[in-house]
Amino acid sequence: MADITSSLAAPARSTRRFRWSTLADHAILITGSLFMLLPLLVLLQTASTPDIETMKYGPGLYFGDQLDDNFRKAMFEASGFSGQNTGLSMFKNSLILGLGFAFGKIVIGMMAAYAIVYFRMRFATMAFWLIFTTLLLPLEVRILPSYEITQKLGLLNTYTGLIVPLIASATATFFFRQFFRSVPEELVEAARIDGAGPVKFFIDILVPLSQTMIAAMFIIMFVYGWNQYLWPTMITTEEGMYTLVRGIKQIVQVLEGNEIPQYGRANMLAIIAVIPPVAIVIFFQSWFVKGLTESDK
């Protein structure tokens, strides 16, 4: 009888331990989430209170009623000398830069990977590793030669100059190469028997198969382009071509003057700058995970 009682009590204790471990896991995750969200809450709080109160008392524990006014100032009121760099124009420039980076890097990465995997070139492997080694070179190493070429071509203060010099991506080429190498050889043979040429095979077969990988690369490249600061700072000298990240920096520099710092406007622009990357990640989240983990075709 004692053995039966102890055997029944053992699962109860293990269940209790499992529940406590689950509670501890969730507590750690919630704590980490709150820790990550705290800066955003501080931005939201300072964007909702008058600038004078923020200057006197710093961030507080309450929310004010200035969100609408600061949003209007951030999006529609111009600043600077030319009066062209409104928040709306900077948002448009950042969006064009992010989408241009994403689509351009995906197209060039897919075509480069397709040539390396499926075309019988003598030095294909060497070409791939030469492309791959460019990952070891940060943007700061090649930014001066890229700027010099862009300037000589007359592409300063243009969307072409913002996007094209940095459009090649070794990261996209690497991931698409690994993806194409996992495509079954039987599928390639079947397409060849059906009379599909290189272009038809690429467009009708590889591109539909690569949808999840394209979504994953789109997230990475869009966020990379959206958060660019150094390259737009060098390429754009006209205020009408400023991106959001560049514009926020300009407003922060104004804080050092004799006027009342525009904390609400600067923090509202920072919140607006966070929204598109977060929305892209949330929308493509499931495709992002599948694109980086899925191997079955």
UniProtKB/TrEMBL annotation:
Membrane-related topology note: Multi-pass membrane protein
GO biological process, one term: transmembrane transport
Subcellular location: Cell inner membrane; Cell membrane
Keyword annotations from UniProtKB, A to Z: Cell inner membrane, Cell membrane, Membrane, Transmembrane, Transmembrane helix, Transport
InterPro entries: MetI-like (IPR000515), MetI-like_sf (IPR035906)
Cross-referenced SUPFAM superfamilies: MetI-like (SSF161098)
Membrane spanning residue stretches: 23-44, 95-116, 123-139, 159-180, 201-224, 268-289
Ranges of residues in domain ABC transmembrane type-1: 91-284
CC annotations in GO: plasma membrane
Keyword Nucleus attributed: no
Assembly description: The complex is composed of two ATP-binding proteins (UgpC), two transmembrane proteins (UgpA and UgpE) and a solute-binding protein (UgpB).
Family: Belongs to the binding-protein-dependent transport system permease family.
General function of this protein: Part of the ABC transporter complex UgpBAEC involved in sn-glycerol-3-phosphate (G3P) import. Probably responsible for the translocation of the substrate across the membrane.
Name of this chain's protein: sn-glycerol-3-phosphate transport system permease protein UgpE
Gene source species: Celeribacter neptunius
